[in-house]
């Protein structure tokens, strides 16, 4: 994991975007797989999921084709948006924005892992009852949609888990910064000379050095009580 808050990298000033380093990040690689699997699922169903007369290949169950298409299309769009957020994540200066992005990433990926599982179960169950297509039309695409819908389950779940690790890392970093800021506050008994604490607890500067006023008062009292002056020769 990267060293910044919520897994953000520490970009050096004047350094451009590192595309190779970005693509080598574990959550980016997993998200790219989610993007690819989603494209395959909705492409297979859209092209040959229906026959020429508009009948769904999955035993005529239109809900199976619709659900498979929805899982693929929404997964493709969401993976594209999240990849853009990953590319811009290091440039987000606000920790609140980073936290919201990570939480949204974690929640959606977990939800879409569940939706991919539901889609896989529905498609495979409908295909089990379906008749073999005439002349094998769309056979490979129908089976590929089921297979890649299954492959998408661990991919989305892995993205959610990595987002959880980034979220946990961000919480630990926030707690560390809060503790560090509290430790930086000066204690009342360790204030430097030239500072004083007012009645409201605020620290203010004073110009006079310590003991200077006391020394002046003592000198004036001694001069008043002792009129003797040293003779001058």
From TrEMBL:
Span list, region Disordered: 214-233
Residue intervals of the MARVEL domain: 22-168
Key word ATP-binding present: no
Keywords of the record: Membrane, Transmembrane, Transmembrane helix
Cellular component GO terms, alphabetical: neuromuscular junction; synaptic vesicle membrane
The keyword Lipoprotein belongs to this UniProt entry's keyword annotation: no
A Pfam family assignment: MARVEL
Superkingdom per UniProt: Eukaryota
Transmembrane segments: 33-50, 70-89, 101-125, 145-165
UniProt-annotated location(s): Membrane
Predominant localisation class: membrane
Membrane topology type: Multi-pass membrane protein
Similarity comment: Belongs to the synaptogyrin family.
Protein name: Synaptogyrin
Naturally occurring in which organism (per UniProt): Tropilaelaps mercedesae
């Amino acid at each position: 994991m990267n060293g910044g808050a919520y897994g953000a990298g520490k970009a050096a000033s004047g350094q451009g975007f590192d595309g190779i380093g970005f693509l080598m990040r574990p959550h980016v690689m997993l998200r790219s797989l989610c993007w690819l699997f989603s494209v395959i699922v909705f492409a297979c169903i859209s092209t040959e999921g229906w026959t020429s007369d508009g009948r769904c290949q999955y035993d005529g169950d239109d809900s199976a084709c619709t659900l498979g298409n929805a899982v693929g299309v929404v997964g493709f769009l969401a993976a594209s948006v999240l990849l853009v957020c990953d590319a811009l994540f290091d440039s987000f200066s606000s920790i609140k924005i980073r936290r919201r992005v990570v939480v949204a990433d974690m929640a959606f990926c977990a939800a879409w892992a569940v939706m991919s599982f539901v889609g896989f179960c529905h498609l495979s169950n409908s295909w089990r009852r379906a008749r073999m297509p005439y002349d094998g039309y769309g056979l490979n695409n129908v089976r590929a949609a089921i297979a890649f819908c299954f492959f998408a389950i661990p991919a989305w779940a892995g993205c959610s888990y990595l987002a959880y690790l980034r979220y946990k890392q961000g919480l630990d970093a926030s707690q560390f910064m809060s503790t560090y800021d509290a430790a930086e506050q000066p204690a009342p008994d360790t204030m430097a000379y030239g500072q004083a604490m007012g009645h409201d607890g605020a620290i203010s500067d004073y110009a006079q050095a310590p003991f200077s006023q006391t020394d002046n008062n003592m000198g004036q009292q001694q001069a008043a009580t002792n009129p003797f002056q040293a003779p001058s020769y």
